[in-house]
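Researcher: Sequence recovery benchmark, item below. Answer with residues only.
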């Protein structure tokens, strides 16, 4: 898994590529805590390079979503395709994240 965090004003973009699963999810825990602690007005999670996600990855994403929304921020998920999109649809997260 690879990830890249960029900041543009009070918006944060986090791009995750590769596999986001029980083995790699802990690598992002500190980054997710840091993002939530910054209380951004907007978080964009770019999953265009994500090939695989499992329940641990989905759980981490939902947890960050809840923390950002609780702080009054907007949370967007973009670029979801392939297996991650299938998982999001099964879990009905495509409706939560307005994936169309």
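Model:
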């Amino acid at each position: 898994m690879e990830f890249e965090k960029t900041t543009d004003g009070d918006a944060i973009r986090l791009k995750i590529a590769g596999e986001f699963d029980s083995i790699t999810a802990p690598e992002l825990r500190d980054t997710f805590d840091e993002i939530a602690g910054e209380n951004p007005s907007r978080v964009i999670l770019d999953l265009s390079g994500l090939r695989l996600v499992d329940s641990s990855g989905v759980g981490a994403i939902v947890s960050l979503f809840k923390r950002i929304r609780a702080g009054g921020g907007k949370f967007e998920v973009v670029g979801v395709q392939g297996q991650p999109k299938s998982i999001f649809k099964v879990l009905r997260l495509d409706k939560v994240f307005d994936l169309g």
